[in-house]
Amino acid sequence: MKIFAIYLIPLTLFCLVAMRSVHASLGVAGAGAVAQYATNILAFVGGFALMIACIYAMLFLSGHLPSADIALFAIVGIQFIPILTILAIISTFAYRRTNSYAPGAFVSALFVTWYIVAGQATQALI
């Protein structure tokens, strides 16, 4: 629980900034639910998916990665696509219900913190 609390603070700040940015700048008045979900998923995942696709395209076409330094990143980076998709869905769902980015940001922060603390080797120097 100590590690969870330590990670929760910066991840909450990140989620608040990210969700506010997405909902303040990408929201279209009168857009339907499908358009909102699709736009937000693309905003969260699009860049990462394109980057991972380029890395793996280079690997499959040439037989090696663009740089040896990104070997671990190419493997670990794949998990960000479903995680960011889940965050976009949570955020959009909460925003459509409350017309505020904050509830989705707090739930997303709890989810990401749980995911990181439960699935990664973490350390707290307390």
Tell me the strand percentage band. Answer: under 5%
Q: Give me the strand/helix succession.
A: HHHHH
Largest sheet: none
Percent range of helical residues: over 70%
Mean pLDDT: 88
User: How many H/I helical runs?
Assistant: 5
The Cα radius of gyration reads 17 Å
Low-confidence stretches: none
Secondary-structure-based class equals: mainly alpha
Distance between the termini: 12 Å
Number of strand elements:
0
CA-based shape:
flat
List the helices and strands and how they pair.
Layout: H1 2-25, H2 33-62, H3 71-76, H4 80-98, H5 102-119
How would you describe the overall organization of this protein?
It is a single chain. The protein has about 130 residues and is mainly α. The chain has 5 helices and no strands. It has helices at about 1-25, 35-60, 70-75, 80-100, 100-120. α2 (about 35-60) runs antiparallel to α4. The radius of gyration is 17 Å and the shape is flat. About 20% of the residues are buried. The mean pLDDT is about 90.
Index terms:
126 residues, mainly alpha, flat
Summarize the structure.
This protein is mainly α and 126 residues long. The chain has helices spanning 2-25, 33-62, 71-76, 80-98, 102-119.
